[in-house]
Amino acid sequence: MRFFTKTKKGFTLTELLIAMAVLAIIAAVTVPSMVTITNKKNFTNGLKKATLILKTVTSEIMADNSGTFAWTFTGPNTYANVFGQKMPFIKVCLANLNPGECFANSWKTLQGTNSWVDTNTLDRAILSNGMTIAFRTFSWTCAHVLYTRNGNNPEGCGYLYVDTNGLKGPNVAGRDIFEFVLTKYNGILPSGAPGTASAVVLDRCSTTSVNFMNGQNCGAKVLTEGVMNY
Prior knowledge:
Layout: H1 13-63, H2 78-84, E1 89-93, E2 123-127, E3 132-137, E4 144-149, E5 153-163, E6 177-183, E7 188-190, H3 218-225
Antiparallel strand pairs: 1-2, 2-3, 3-5, 4-5, 5-6, 6-7
């Protein structure tokens, strides 16, 4: 009597190569997407952390100044001095000195063009947590239209620029760099928030916009929606 046994047949080389090619295609599609999602979550968390720090510090500064920012700063170099009393700076770079040491030497808008402000010309500082910050004075009396309360009361003091991951990349507005507005009575607000001058401009946080200040309003968008969905 003859017995027949089944033999197991392995994959051929061709089949293995095809399987590897398919896996490579899947990885090429999914891995970059997963990295992007992770990066956006990190950027969002960084913005939330920076916002909490800035709101806490500005509230303390205003409490020491009768509840207002007016006349808190009397010159372009006092921003760093006053904030430095409340924030743990590990290094300060005064305006036009030490370019690239306390803030990104250059940064981009959301669509990749050069930023709308040269932060090397501003006071800058590095926080103990690695974040970097730049200060831009507009009005010592906080009477500038960069913020208007109730539609007719100009109460803007100046801008703050924060790089949530310090000197690391990508150094892009709306990703790791965000603009905030200092106000006379309402503390600090992300650009794009109600009352800020840029809030009326709708194309300053879009990957398809060609606005030369694209990315300016992203802080308000992310903090409102809770995610970075652009």
